[in-house]
Amino acid sequence: MVWRQHRIIRLNIVVLLYLMVCFVLCPVSAMTVSSPAEVHSVRGNAVTLTCTFTSTSRATSRMSVDWSYRPQTGGPPQAFFHFSSLAFPPQEGQFNGRVKWLGSPARGEASIQLLNASLSDNGTYTCSVRNPPDVHGSPTSQTVLTVTPKVPAVRFSDVAVLLAFILLPSAIITLALLGRMCCPPRDKSQTQGYHSPIEVTPEDEPGFMQINRKEKNMTCCDLYFLDSDYEDYYIHKERPLAQGETMAVSQC
């Protein structure tokens, strides 16, 4: 009877030692899930919500992924996507028809893609992964999504049209004005010689044109009278005749 009690005690000691060795050498596996803290997108674009996980146990059919959403205005999280061997996208609500599964459990990926992002999608998204027997660690991770309005982009063709119809004519007009300022047109009267405003040319003298017509086919006597006429004209122009004074005329 005594030997049976000693045998039971020895058996309990062996089991206890075995459990202590397993606790030290065989720790419980832990799950780690990670995702970016912030994701930015533009309204109307497709945005990827990345989620990765590490596990010491191979992913099996018992492995599951859940995505939940909490609005930017606050409130409780709302589960909208579930994966367990197959993807179960939302069938109603604001995410209906807009969630695409991009994960691959064998590679430790549990990402999804949100199509046609809108401003109402702003908020916090939580990725939860379970892969028994990994029951410890951090099986969840959160990402804050910010969707901004789309800014209209200016196409290159629009810029080219603007340059062609506005800037180019302005540049041509500016060059033309600079050319007129730097190179003014020459006056035709200057090409024929400059005359002072108070200067009187022989062509402007009274009677010059009449005398000039008689220069052709003149005799010696005519040339003498012509000279006398020129002298009398300029003497009379320089000094007017006094009253009662007459001019002597020579005869040939």
From TrEMBL:
GO cellular component terms, A-Z: plasma membrane
Superkingdom to which the source organism belongs: Eukaryota
SUPFAM superfamilies: Immunoglobulin (SSF48726)
Annotated Pfam families: V-set
Topology class, membrane: Single-pass type I membrane protein
Regions that span the bilayer: 159-178
Keywords linked to the UniProt accession: Disulfide bond, Glycoprotein, Immunoglobulin domain, Membrane, Signal, Transmembrane, Transmembrane helix
Entry annotated with the keyword Membrane: yes
Limits of the Ig-like domain: 27-146
Residues spanning the signal sequence: 1-30
Protein name per the record: Myelin protein zero like 2
Lineage: Eukaryota, Metazoa, Chordata, Craniata, Vertebrata
Gene: MPZL2
